[in-house]
Amino acid sequence: MLAWAQPQAPTSGPQAVVRQALQAAAPGLKIDSITAAPLPGFQQVIAGGRMVYVRDDGRYMFDGRLVGLSAPARDLSRPAWNAYRRAQLAAIPAADRIIYAPAKPRYRVTVFTDVTCGFCRELHRHMAEINQLGIEVDYLAWPREGLLTTAGRPTPVATEMADVWCADDRKAAFEAALMRATPPPARSCANPVRREYEAGSRMGANGTPTIIADDGRELGGYLSPESLLQAVRKEAGETVPAKASPGH
């Protein structure tokens, strides 16, 4: 099982300068990664589900995608984000996921989900069709209300999702909760809801469903089965046939 290994923070050099500058500007900020940026003189920082670029002397920062304009123009931020997401996902074992897979999957996506989310419900209604298209779906918990209320108690949805993940039959409990049929019985166990929520937040999830391809690219939110197939085929480098125009 792979993990995103955070090397020991350097005590000198640009990375140390940038770390000190960020911690001075935002005390308590959890910095996940600092690496040399594709832009000379800058460091690429992943923190709090965002990627920013900080000048080596720690004096200036900008937030957003870094785009290389030499032909062909390309997003220089994407490779680092993809690698980071891949490593984060690789650290989550199959036993902590709720997996819907065809007999011989050709593609796999990871979906951060919430059992109270309408678009998550709509996505799941098409699961049989998605699987028939050769796509495996791995669900991870991402309660939209967060983990704790302002009073410091578990949020209702975080509690419900913990009950789902603690159920003897996770799939049955998940489907009943997602379709708002019956809430899962209250259960207590060492469940992965907190870890999955925090991992999703580090990867930039800010709503559900958030769909991530196997190569670490974020595909967006709700997609129809056919749109999902086109997205994963594109990310896999396959030729995606153009949709026929009306009347053809």
Structural write-up:
- Required for disulfide bond formation in some periplasmic proteins. Acts by transferring its disulfide bond to other proteins and is reduced in the process.
- InterPro entries: DiS-bond_Isoase_DsbC/G (IPR033954), DiS-bond_isomerase_DsbC/G_N (IPR018950), DiS-bond_isomerase_DsbC/G_N_sf (IPR009094), Thiol:disulfide_interchange (IPR051470), Thioredoxin-like_fold (IPR012336), Thioredoxin-like_sf (IPR036249).
- With 248 residues, the chain is α+β, with helices and mostly antiparallel strands.
- It has two domains: 14-79, Roll (Nuclear Transport Factor 2, Chain: A); 89-235, Glutaredoxin.
- It is built from eight helices and eleven strands.
- The strands form three sheets. A five-stranded mixed β-sheet has the order 7-9-8-10-11, sandwiched between helices. Strands 1-2-3-4 form a four-stranded antiparallel β-sheet, with helices on one face.
- The N and C termini lie far apart (49 Å).
